[in-house]
Each structure stands twice: as C-alpha cells, then as structure tokens.
Amino acid sequence: MDRKIEKKFWNKKRILMIGGGAVVALLLIYALIFADHRATLNVEKDKITISPVKKGTFDVYIAVTAVVMPLKTIRLDAIEAGYVSRKYLEGGSMVKQGDSILKLDNQHMVMQFVTQETEIYRLRNDLQNTRLNIRKEDFLEQQAISELNARIDAAQDLYDRNKQLVDEKIVARQEFNKNKFDLEGLLKQRAIKLESQEYQRENAKMQIAQLEGTLARTQRNLDLMKENLNSLIVRAPVSGQLSSIDVEIGSSITAGQNIGQIDDLNGFKLRADIDEHYVSQVFAGLKASFEFDGKSYAMVITKVYPEVKNGRFQADMTFEKETPAGIRRGQSTPIRLVLGKSAEALLLPLGGFFSDTGGNWVYVVDKNGKQAVKRNISLGRKNPLYFEILEGLQPGDQVITSSYENFGNKDVLAF
C-alpha cells in the first residue's frame, strides 16, 4: 500500500533563501548605520601642497618694499629769473660746494645794475661837491667874521680913546656917540654872523648826513643787485651728486623754479610703500631690518607720511648703526617691518587655501596618508610666512595648504 510522504519545512532550498535574505538585510543595515556617506573626491597627491603644523615663534611683522634714497636731498631752485645761456654740468655728475652748474642771463637786471651804479657815482660826486661848497662857505664866513672882528677892534679902540677925550672936552659928544653907535652895530653884526655861521654848520651837517644816508642805501641796493646778478650763476650749495638737472640751454626760467637736485652721499635712508591697512600701526621709532649681502642691518622709522595714495602710504627709515657698503640710490629691496612682540604659537604656513575657505576650515591628512578630511579651525594673526592657529589643529598635523579651488565642497579627499 502506498504511504504519503510529508515534505520537510527546513529544506535546503528554503535554508539558502532565508540565509541569503538575512545576509542582504545585514549588509543593508551595516550600510545604513556604519558606512561612510561623506562626499569623496579623488585627487593626485603630487599636485597638492601638504604642510606640517608646528609650534614655534610667531613674529609680528610685515614685508614691504623700500627704495634706497640719499639721507639728504637739496633742491636747486632759481633765485632769479632768466634764460639758460650756459650749462656747465649734466645730471649724474659729482659736484663740490660752490661749483658752477649753469648760467642764466637777465638783461633787465643788468640794466638796473648799471643804472644803480651810475646813481652811486652821481651821489658820491654830489656829496663831495656839497662838502667842498660847505667848506668854502665856512671859510668865507670865517673870513667875514675875521674882518668884522678887525673892524670891531678898531671901533673899540676909537671908542675907548674918544671916551677919555670927550670927558676932557677935546672930542665933541656928537662924534663920541657916533663912535659908540658904530661899535654897538658892529657887535650886533658879529653876534648875528656867529649865529648864522652856527646855523649853516648845523644845516651842513644835516645835508651831509642825508647825502651819506642816501648814498649808503643806494650802495646797499647796488650790493643786493650785485648778489642777484651773481645768483644768475647757479652753484652747488653742498658737495654730492647732481642727480638731476631739468633745463636745457635757451630754456626760460622763472624765479623760484626748481631746476634740479643734489644728493648728499654721506648717508642713505629707505622709503617704503606700506598698505593703508597698517597706517594706524606704523609710527616713528618702529623697528625694521634690512638684509643685504648676507647680513642683517637694524633700521628705525624716522618719519611717516600719513597721506594715502592708491591705497598706500610712505615711511622713511634710517640705519641705527652702520650703513651697508655698496647700496646705491634707487635700489629696491624688501624690508622686514616689526609691528609687535614675538610670541610662542602653533604655526601653519601660508597658502592658497585661505582664499577658498577664509581660514575657517582645512583638509587634514589622516595618519595612514591615504585621505584628507575637512576640519574646522580658527586662525589668529598672520605674517608673511605663517598663520597663527588658535583652535582645531595640533603640532604634527599635515594640512593641505595649496588652493582648494578644484575640490568643490567635498568632505574627504582620497589619494
């Protein structure tokens, strides 16, 4: 008799199906819970820059470009107007104090000088003639007084004799009175003559003083005009280098016009162009350093020009001790300008990443070196070499510091 055979529930096919489904379910659960869902981008490691984070001294300074200039520059300005008739030296020549540089001609000034000189001669002749005339008149007055004194002596003698004779009634009273009146008249004439002579002498002194004063003033004017004529020859006020002379023969020059300059080569200074961002931080007395021929030279800011042009202002710096041998006027060189005290800090080298992230995050390479992961950070100060790290990084971290422009906003970079 036939017997019905019952099928088993856990047959091989069912076990395989259930087992396969369980494995798929476990994989799905793992993918949902444990798998890395961050956006990843594959990059070539040799095309990026990786820099280490290190602990060191953070120097607060900026690098600026400065130009070597003479310590003193003397402007050559024309004292008088004229046209250039001769040019003795060209720009770049070495000059000694007093050397002639160029000559100006001014016919109007020459004519004025000749006229003034002629006036001097006339005044001198007038003064001499006045002195001669006064002396002559004085001699005539003295002669007249001398003659008057002789007449008075004679009248006095006659008066004295007639007075005795009139008492003896030998001479008539009428004749005696006439002698008396004659004597008194002569005495009055002499008194008037003496007073007139004194007045003439005082008047003569006044005339002489006025003429001498006029002559002295005219002479001073003539001397001044002579100095002005001498100023038509432009001379070097100091020894140095005639760095520029901006005129040519035949040029018309006005009084006060700048015609060139002389550089005093006994010392040099550097003039730096600085970004206006630092205008409140730069002041006289601030320290700087200058590298030349493998040696560092200490400098100090002596003058700040606060006027801002095209987003920059200027400052002058001088050497604190020795001046480097071999530097030349117009030479351009980088200067390290110290803005604050140095301090220990975590340092991250500068790089193009900052323009892409604003310094808010970076890609940090993991320990196995196979990928770099985005990490938020906080940066502090900046100098020409490093950023100061405040948060987010540790010494030894490897950071991609080149540009992130081609990375989009990926969380992970795989090498």
Give your account of this protein's structure.
With 415 residues, this protein is α+β, with helices and mostly antiparallel strands. It folds into three domains: 40-58 and 343-414, conserved putative lor/sdh protein from methanococcus maripaludis s2 fold (Beta Barrel), CATH 2.40.420; 62-67 and 265-338, Elongation Factor Tu (Ef-tu), domain 3 (Beta Barrel); 108-230. The chain is built from four helices and 22 strands. The strands form four sheets. Strands 1-22-18-17-21-2 form a six-stranded mixed sheet, with no helix packed on it. A six-stranded antiparallel beta barrel has the order 4-11-14-13-12-15. A four-stranded antiparallel sheet has the order 3-16-20-19, with no helix packed on it. It is found in: Cell envelope.
